[in-house]
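User: tokens in, sequence out, please.
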């Protein structure tokens, strides 16, 4: 379905065309008519399906006829990265219309606080904010949201996982009773449905193929030991010299530093990003990665949702994600909106159980090619929780971290 069939304003259609969009994605095709009809909505859609445009486009179409300077739309998101990304998309789509927006999130200095407060007081059409930071402005008593007509809760499941439920309910208490509420979630657990019953009025429910990577993702799994991972990456990167955008996910902030250092040492210039970086530096790194000035970026889960970077050639799960759903979000960074991409996951013997759960979730057996012989002997797929594998990993940690203690060792019972 083409965007011209939605009866949108010509200026908005011009901006959509200017950004290279012609046909609506399935989620946009189903969601946009509901929003234009002023109905409440709860939508379950995975990352990379065009979800942001699904609610931004119809809201901007309504704002074209807005005549006052009050705050009209509030979009609540779990992370500052997603807030920045949504604001950038709004700026692009509102290029030919008079709509203002501002992203509000933590990490700024005193001047940033003042500038964002002025934007709230002077009336900005669209506010995109993280819950905690927004609530700190509302508690001052200087900011009024009595004119809000649209409330969007984006990645609601993620916000609840991060413990924002009380903040969200507190923010809603500042809004007028009559407004359109739109809730988007990649999953639909019980707590999301409970929240929906509290904040939505007779909502339209839409669900699109959740918990499965996009069809354009070429998925692979390699079974290796921890100490072989960098060697395998070096081999894979040498085979993919034409790839100019590679995103690596790891489990912890400390590992980001370790992986970047190891890759740089092996001749693969890399950069890392985590919540330890100042916001200005994070935006600088993301900007360079987006512009292909950084080829390899190592990140924690902070990058797994909400970062809209086109044409990422390869996503690597250096560490298995803690939850199966996180696998889908990580892999969703590539092959976005009908594009092609590759996703490679590195699995150690003790993580085979997690892999099985992922395959059950996505209802697919992921191809498992043999690692190259150049990285040395690798474990077999029958080595599940195998003592030999466990001992090997312990020796690896002992070698890399001399002060590492074997916590598996039990102390002798006290005498008597």
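Assistant: Sequence out:
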């Amino acid at each position: 379905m083409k965007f011209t069939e939605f009866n949108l304003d010509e200026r908005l259609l011009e901006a959509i065309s200017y950004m290279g969009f012609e046909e609506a994605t399935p989620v946009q095709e189903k969601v946009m008519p509901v929003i234009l009809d002023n109905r409440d909505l709860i939508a379950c859609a995975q990352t990379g399906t065009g979800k942001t445009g699904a609610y931004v486009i119809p809201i901007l179409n309504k704002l074209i006829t807005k005549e006052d300077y009050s705050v009209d739309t509030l979009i609540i998101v779990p992370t500052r990265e997603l807030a920045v990304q949504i604001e950038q998309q709004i700026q692009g789509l509102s290029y030919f219309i008079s709509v203002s927006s501002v992203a509000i999130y933590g990490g700024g200095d005193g001047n940033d606080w003042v500038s964002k407060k002025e934007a709230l007081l002077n009336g900005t059409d669209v506010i995109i904010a993280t819950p905690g930071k927004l609530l700190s402005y509302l508690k001052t008593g200087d900011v009024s949201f009595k004119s809000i007509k649209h409330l969007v809760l984006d990645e609601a499941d993620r916000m609840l996982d991060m413990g924002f439920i009380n903040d969200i309910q507190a923010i809603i208490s500042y809004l007028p009773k009559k407004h359109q509420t739109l809730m988007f979630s990649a999953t639909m657990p019980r707590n999301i449905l409970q929240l929906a019953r509290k904040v939505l009025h007779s909502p339209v429910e839409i669900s699109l193929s959740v918990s499965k990577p996009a069809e354009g993702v070429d998925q692979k799994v390699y079974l290796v030991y921890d100490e072989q991972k960098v060697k395998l990456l070096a081999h894979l990167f040498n085979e993919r010299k034409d790839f100019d955008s590679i995103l690596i996910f790891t489990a912890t902030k400390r590992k980001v530093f370790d992986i970047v250092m190891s890759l740089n040492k092996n001749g693969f210039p890399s950069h890392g990003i985590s919540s330890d970086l100042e916001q200005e530096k994070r935006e600088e790194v993301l900007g360079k990665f987006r512009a292909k000035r950084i080829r390899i970026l190592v990140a924690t889960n902070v990058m797994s949702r909400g970062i809209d970077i086109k044409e990422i050639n390869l996503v690597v799960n250096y560490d298995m994600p803690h939850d199966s759903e996180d696998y889908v979000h990580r892999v969703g960074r590539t092959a976005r909106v009908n594009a092609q991409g590759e996703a490679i996951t590195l699995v150690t013997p003790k993580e085979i159980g997690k892999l099985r759960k992922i395959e059950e979730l996505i209802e697919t057996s992921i191809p498992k090619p043999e690692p190259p012989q150049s990285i040395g002997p690798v474990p077999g797929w029958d080595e599940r929780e195998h003592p030999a594998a466990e001992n090997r990993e312990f020796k690896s940690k002992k070698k890399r971290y001399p002060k590492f203690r074997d916590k598996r060792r039990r102390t002798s019972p006290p005498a008597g």
